[in-house]
Each structure stands twice: as structure tokens, then as C-alpha cells.
Design goal:
Blueprint lengths: L12 E3 H13 L5 H13 L1 E3 L27
Parallel strand pairs: 1-2
Helix pairs in contact: 1-2
Length: about 80
């Protein structure tokens, strides 16, 4: 997956336990899908880690359910 290095990516805030789980997931799949594994590891590297109990309430995490609404869309998804 090629990404323009000048594109602005959103900030990532992640709890320490989920960070560890996602690292293990990326490493386990490195031989099967190295591009996706590398991309996930790069994103995890730039993430700001916080203790799980200090995650802000508006942070989406594994197992979350949320509605996404694009500012240009008429409907929520």
C-alpha cells in the first residue's frame, strides 16, 4: 500500500493492552501479509500510548461500536 508521505494522518491514541495485542497480531501475520503487517506496525509506532484506564471516553477501541458521519454525507453509517 503506497501512501503519500505528505498526507496528514489523524492522531492515534491507544491503550497499552490493545497496543500489545495489535503488535502481536501484526507480527503473527508478517509472513502471510507483510505489507499489511508493516502498515499496522508503522501506525502503532506513531501512536500515543496511554494507560487503559486513562483513555478518553471518545476514543474508539477494539470492540467499540460507533456511528461515522462524513461532513459531506447526508446519512450516518
Amino acid at each position: 500500500m503506497t501512501r503519500d508521505k505528505t498526507s496528514r494522518r489523524p492522531a492515534i491514541i491507544i491503550g497499552r493492552s490493545e497496543h500489545g495485542r495489535l503488535i502481536k497480531l501484526a507480527e503473527a501475520h508478517a509472513s502471510k501479509n507483510p505489507e499489511v503487517s508493516d502498515e499496522l506496525l508503522q501506525e502503532l509506532e506513531r501512536a500515543r500510548l496511554v494507560d487503559d484506564n486513562l483513555l478518553p471516553p471518545d476514543v474508539v477501541h477494539m470492540g467499540s461500536t460507533f456511528a461515522l458521519r462524513a461532513t459531506w454525507a447526508k446519512k450516518s453509517r
